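Hi support team,

I'm opening this ticket because the web form for multi-chain structure prediction keeps timing out on my end. I have pasted the exact lines I submitted so you can reproduce it. The total is 910 residues across three entries, so I didn't expect it to be a heavy job. Is there a limit I'm missing, or should I split the entries? Thanks in advance, R.K.
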Amino acid sequence: MAGIGLSGVTKTYPGGVTAVDGLDLTVHDGEFFALLGPSGCGKTTLLRTIAGLEQASAGTVSIGDRDVTRLAPGQRDVAMVFQDYALFPHMTVLDNIAYPLRVKRIPRAARHDRAREVGAGLDLADLMARRPAELSGGQQQRVALARAVVAHPKAFLFDEPLSNLDARLRLSARTFLKRLQRDLGITTVFVTHDQAEALAMADRIAVMDAGRIRQVGTPREVFGRPATSFVAHFIGSTPMNLLDATVTGGRLTLAAGTLPCPADLPDDTRVTVGIRPEYLTYSKDPVEDALAGTVGIVEHLGSSSLVTLETDGAAPVGVVVEEGAEPEPGTRGWAVPRPGRVLLYRAGGGDLLA
Amino acid sequence: MSAPAVLARRAMARVGLYVFVGLVLVFFALPLVWLVTTPFARTPSYRVPAPSFTLHNFRILWDNPYAVRSIGNSLVLAGGTAVLAVVFAGTAAYALSRVRLPGRDAVLYAVLLLSSIVTGTAAMVPIFLMLFQLDLIDNRLALVLVLTGGLLPSAMFILKDFMDTVPRSYEESARVFGASPFQILRHVVAPVVRPGLATIAVWAVVQVWGNFLLPYILLHDPAKQPAAVIMYTFYDEGGQPNFALISTFSLLYSVPVVLCYLVVNRRYGFRFQGGIKG
Amino acid sequence: MLFVAPALALIAAFLVFPALWTLYLGVLKYDLAGSNAAAPQFVGLGNYRDALTDPRFANSLLLTVAFVGLSAVLGQNVLGFLLAAVLRDAASWVRGVVNAVVLLAWILPGTVVVFLWQALLDRGGGTLNALLGTPGAAWTLDHPLATIVAFNIWRGTAFSMLLYSAALGAVPRSQLETARTYGAGPLRTLRDVVLPHIRGHVLTNTLLITLWTFNDFAPYMLTGGGPDHRSETLPVYVYRTSIEGGALGYGSAISLIMLIVNLAIALFYLRLLRRRSA
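Hello R.K., no limit was hit. The queue was backed up. Here is the completed structure from your submission:
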């Protein structure tokens, strides 16, 4: 087992496109680590660079205390699970799981024993004679995992491991993967574009954009205090309100009202205020230090609803309200931030100020 | 239009269709009648025989010193070419499908065009001269290589399409587990594109089986000549065709390709498997 | 690289090299026998001048164009398309039978096929004369071009049929049904829905069968180029001058002219294809 270290890793494709740009990152031993970002942010390229399927144009990759930058994928002692699982269609489940051992020239009987053992652990014992096409999506995923486990690598690399499952199965697979990783204790890096997945499974998350890491932190940190307005916008199942404001006399002036300023900033500083809809309290009566608007759309989320307050000419404000407490569209409403939940970003897509 | 008129038009169209299909059938089947009847005729000739049955003609065929052996020669040539074409075209198509080189497709197209042009009569003079000066006339391996060379571009072209459909993740997965390129090809790629390889093998066999010109100019020893060439020796001194030999031999010589057809038809359906795209 | 090497070596040796050699031989006066066999004489473009001014070459070129146009571009193409279209909705046994005879004509060995056609067209006991009640009609002598055209249609239609049935299968049903809902007749549907869809296939198919027919040597085996050069297509002409007549240099020059014509055809089609995708 081993941690993974990346230092100054850059990947530039022949066409001149830079997918990963001078990136430093340390994944601790035994950690379940998520690379999160929108498509095209370089997260998959980064994972493939760790695997050795792409050569870094600059920088070093180390696994454990070994510099693997120039090593072929097969020499790095990692196992990868691909988005489409990459199960070999002509081999049975048993042969698929045993394949890494076949490459290592382990005798047939021994590798089949080992594959059966691992397969049984993943609840595949009855499926050993089948071919991948005869399995459900969830079963295929478990076979792919079993094949990775059997290789007994220093690290697992998962590329969008849940994206090929339907929505309901994805939730149980999330729990399953997290348990498997905890039980095995093997350092795992996984790539996802789904922030909920990253928040649910990972010990730590790196949020990527345009080939760079925008924030590394625990799910709580990334959700509660996004380091940039990009991260703020990207994380969370209801998008964070990002509103333009100016500082005047220790207060923030927004289009929808004024709020106390959480930081000591000079007058006339232009900032972006970030407040999650979940951290706003709705009130149907006028209150102090609140954002005001007209109720527009009400979207039902299940146990709560997302209310959109329209403000004249400026960005609307989203508020999450309890089930049963939804206001009527067209009425006037106020949203009060909970204490300590107002974040300030430098205006124009900048960093966290407070 | 009134309803009866529509019905009448439909009926006419149907009749027209059946007449068309019937004519086509006659056109295509007519020459084949001779092939299946004459071998069993008592006095075989160009004339399609009146119903009669004898196996005597096959006796004559069996006794001919070159006839049966030439079928064997054809098998050797066809088999050898098929194996080489599958192996070389397979490896090359795999590499070409995976390596991104500028102008790769243009080169492939150029070679394909060259092959459909050069394999015919246009190249027979230089090929004859080349093998003549290398003293490789009557050398069957040389002929197999020439035949393979002619088939390779098309085979590569078709196989590359098959290879392109193999997801890259298959190979990358194997690579991460440490498999070498040859192991990947043997364990993963070849089994996945097996229908394509089989198509190429059958296609190569059929091509070589019917090829007359190249063996005719490159093999002069009758003991080595394949069926396509030997068939032209079945004339008597007066230049009259020996119908007993020719008819039975035609049948015997046709059986393997018909079998090939049946096998392909049964296993894959006689269709283009993405090999040719518009 | 290792994967591509054997294929490239064979292609270089047996396709590219002969093509280049053809280029070189074309500028020599090089004969199979006589003084020019031992010491070929450099004649520059002499062979090409001779060929281009030879009325026999002009006749041959014209014949080839007619042969290709009638038998491939029109005959195989249209018949193949019609068969594919008609069989699409035909009863499965009709489809099976028609498919079988048409494909049989395609896959039988060339030499066998030639004998079948000789039996069909024979003056004395030929099936066609017996059927039409025209004993003694010498089809190959009286209508040599028509004979080889009919023969080539018979021989090669299967390919177009297969390709077009695959292509037609890929035309989305929903679009055909849309056309029907708007009341479009079969011809309109063909023009507005089917043809735009399969245009690429039509071009590919026409290119391939054109090249194949252009270089087809089978007419020689049926008519020997005769009578009086009336079915002497270019491949036959090359064969008769260089192998039978022994004028290797001259034959190579003609081969090269054929190569260039082929290339021109291919480029022409590729242009059309590219315009489609543009």
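A quick check on our side: Residues 167-184 of chain A form the longest helix (18 residues). Let us know if the file doesn't open in your viewer.
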